[in-house]
Each structure stands twice: as structure tokens, then as C-alpha cells.
Amino acid sequence: MGLLDMLGSALGQGNADGQPHQTILTAVMELINNQPGGLQGLIQKFEQNGAGGVVQSWISGEANQAVSPETLQNVLGSGALNDLAGKVGVTPEQASALLAQVLPKVVDHATPNGEVPPSGQIDVASVLGSIGQAGGIGALVEGFLSRKNNPASPGDTA
User: Fold this and answer.
1) Is residue 20 part of a domain?
2) Domain range enclosing 70
3) What is the pLDDT of residue 130?
């Protein structure tokens, strides 16, 4: 089974009830909330690993900067990625690639008006509702899957 097949399976493509999508979002939000200090602790990890500008873009009203799977590996470590992979049924490398697409959107939706929750804990129900209104998890990973299926041509800047 290839990467796209496994991600499609993990994402539950074609599943009308959206449960696998919610499982992925919930797992990502648990990953955030389980950090020492919650979201604030995650932000500090990004800053300590030279990616503070990236995570700040997700919180600000500006366009979200992309994060690489390698940066996530450096920031979160293999233990957190292994745990996430186990929860969503993919390899740690696939979990890192998926997280690179989903985490910026989750943090963006968890910090309305550019404000990190004082407790550091994100409100799972609120974020799920916000993402649902924005098109759901399918919309979050659609770009990831389409890039894998249709790689950009050398002159493409998108």
C-alpha cells in the first residue's frame, strides 16, 4: 500500500460520517494539549528549534507559513510522532507529512484574533466546529493529496 493509499485510508476518504477525519483532528489537538504548557509549550519548542517565525505565522492574521516534516521531527521528536502515527494508523513519516499539513490550520483555528488561550489548552470542540465550518479536515489535506497526485512543474510557483 502506497503513501497516498495509506493517507486516504487514514483520512477515511469517501466516508460520509466524517469520523476518521475527526479522529485525525482530535489526535492532533491531543498532541498539542499534551505538550508541557499546551499550545504555549508547543510554541516555545518551535522557537527553541529555530522555527518561531513559522508558528507565529499560524497565530497571526497573516498567511500561514509551511512547515516541513523534518522541522516537525526536530521540534516534536520521534516519540510524539510515533504516538500520533499509532492513533491515526500510518507510519511516523506519514504522520509527520500529514501533521505538516494539518497542524498550521489547527493552530490557526485555535487562536482566533491571534490570541493563544491563557491556559495553553485549546478548546477541542471549538476548533472542530471552526474547522468544520471552513470545509473540514478533507479541505485541510486536499492540497497535500493533490500535490502528491499532480506534482508541480518546474516553472510552477504555487
Assistant:
1) no
2) 3-12+27-145
3) 85
Q: Is residue 18 assigned to a domain? A: no
CATH code of the domain containing 32: 1.10.10.690
Are the CB atoms for 110 and 122 separated by under 8 Å? yes
For 11-48, give the DSSP string.
HTTT-TT-HHHHHHHHHHHHHHHTSTTHHHHHHHHHHH
CA distance 43 to 38: 9
Sign of CA dihedral 104, 107, 112, 114: negative
Extract the residue ranges of the chain whose pLDDT is less than 50. Answer: 1-18, 143-158
Residue 17 belongs to a domain: no
Q: What is the pLDDT of residue 61?
A: 82
3-class secondary structure per residue, 77-134? HHHHHHHHHHHHCCCHHHHHHHHHHHHHHHHHHHCHHHCCCCCCCCCHHHHHHHHHHC
Domain-embedded: residue 56: yes
C-alpha cell at 154: 518546474
Does the reported pTM lie above 0.85?
A: no
pLDDT tens digit string along 38-54? Answer: 999 999 999 999 999 99
CA angle 18, 19, 22 (to 5 degrees): 90
Which single residue is written with the C-alpha cell 497526485?
149
